[in-house]
Design a protein that fits this description.
By secondary structure, this protein is of the alpha+beta class. It has three domains: 114 residues, DNA Polymerase III, subunit A, domain 2 (DNA Polymerase III, Chain A, domain 2, Roll); 123 residues, DNA Polymerase III, Chain A, domain 2 (Roll); 113 residues, DNA Polymerase III, Chain A, domain 2 (Roll), CATH 3.10.150. 18% of the residues lie in helices and 43% in strands. Strands 5-2-3-4-16-15-14-9 form an eight-stranded antiparallel beta sheet. Helix 5 runs antiparallel to helix 6. It is elongated, with a radius of gyration of 25 Å. It starts with a strand and ends in a 5-residue tail after the last strand.
């Protein structure tokens, strides 16, 4: 195998792929990337058995085809530290890969391409295309609510629900929920659900850097694949049943508060300083035209913030985890926030008044 390629062209796909490679793994081949040369197209593949990314780059002229695996981190670090604009010559000799650039020469250990595991995509049941910014928005608006290392493994990921002419994603950790729905051109009669693992969601967000470019989504029974001219991304799906999120959405709330997002965001940040470090609870006291937020901790310290809000109705008191409120305030983009409550035991339904595509639910706390 032999090829020549510019360092700058090789660096981007190598960086995309290296992100998925695990440092600590059980199989030696998983620390490597697979290089495959077909004509003038070089494919670079990295995998951790759950997620697989294939980056593509055109080499100079037509090289000598073949396939081999090289250590991912070392190869990436070599390329990264070569001078901008330099050229890289790569060839294999017996069990080694030789990388040359200018007066630099590196010899890397290789493993046979046959040792490299591939993520088999299985049957493709559904595919559609949309702009990358649509998938990015879905992820950005909801990923913060995914669980981390929860025993309910199906919560350690994100529900993708393909609906007629729409894609909805939902994340929840059992204490709060985030949901975003965007229009996409997909022909489907019945709603189809899939749970993407947490790592796949994070990697996909990192890969989708061209807002206006199209991405093709291919959804099968056990895998999801995203394809662009720059990369092919494949992930296994979580085998489990996501909770019925519709039952969690509060209905019939009649206490509607509208407040300035920036004011609320800063008030949450300030009261959080003196909240209980373990439980992170703050108290909402809602009165006509005013919201009072208080926090205290075992050291008998207290914080209080008063904010003018649009609200008419009875006085109500309810507790929340301040971190969850801060997360929601961080993703809402408009100048104001709308919060709907039913009573002291009800979850808060939080919305962006200017953007109806996302809704958030935060469960109350007993304080």
């Amino acid at each position: 195998m032999k090829f020549s390629v510019s360092r700058d062209a090789l660096l981007k796909p190598l960086q995309l792929v290296s992100g998925v490679v695990e440092r600590r793994q059980t199989m030696p081949a998983l620390a490597n990337v697979l290089l495959e040369l077909n004509g003038s197209e070089l494919s670079i593949t990295g995998t951790d058995l759950e997620v697989e990314i294939v980056g593509k780059v055109d080499v100079d002229g037509v090289g000598q085809g073949g396939e081999v695996t090289v250590p991912a981190k070392k190869f990436f670090d070599i390329c990264k530290n070569l001078p901008d604009g330099s050229n890289i010559n790569f060839e294999t000799e017996e069990q080694k890969a030789v990388v040359k650039s200018g007066r630099s020469r590196f010899m890397l250990a290789t493993l046979p391409a046959d040792d490299f595991p591939s993520v088999e995509p299985g049957e493709n049941e559904l595919n559609f295309e949309c702009e990358q910014k649509e998938i990015r928005r879905l992820i950005d608006q909801t990923s913060f609510a995914m669980a981390q290392q929860d025993v309910r493994y199906y919560l350690n990921g994100m529900l993708w629900e393909v609906r007629p002419q729409a894609l909805r994603v939902v994340s929840t950790d059992g204490h709060r929920l985030a949901m975003c729905t965007r229009p996409v051109n997909v022909e489907i009669e019945e709603v189809k659900q899939a749970i993407l693992p947490r790592k796949a969601v994070i990697e996909m967000s990192r890969l989708l850097t061209d807002p206006e470019e199209q991405v093709q989504i291919v959804l099968g029974a056990t895998h999801l694949r995203a394809v662009t001219p720059e990369f092919t991304f494949t992930t296994k799906l979580v085998d489990g049943k996501f909770p019925d999120y519709d039952r969690v959405l509060p209905k019939g709330g009649d206490k509607v508060i509208t407040g300035d997002r920036n004011e609320l965001k800063h008030a949450f940040a300030r009261t959080a300083i003196l909240s209980n470090e373990k439980y992170r609870g703050i108290r909402f006291v809602l009165e006509e035209g005013q919201l009072t937020i208080t926090a205290n901790n075992p050291e008998q310290e207290e914080a209080e913030e008063q904010i003018a809000v649009e609200y008419t109705g009875d006085t109500i008191e309810v507790g929340f985890n301040v971190n969850y409120l801060q997360d929601v305030a961080g993703v809402i983009e408009s100048a104001s926030v709308k919060i709907t409550l039913a009573d002291t035991n009800s979850s808060a339904l939080i919305e962006d008044p200017e953007n109806a595509d996302s809704i958030y639910v935060v469960m109350p706390m007993r304080l």
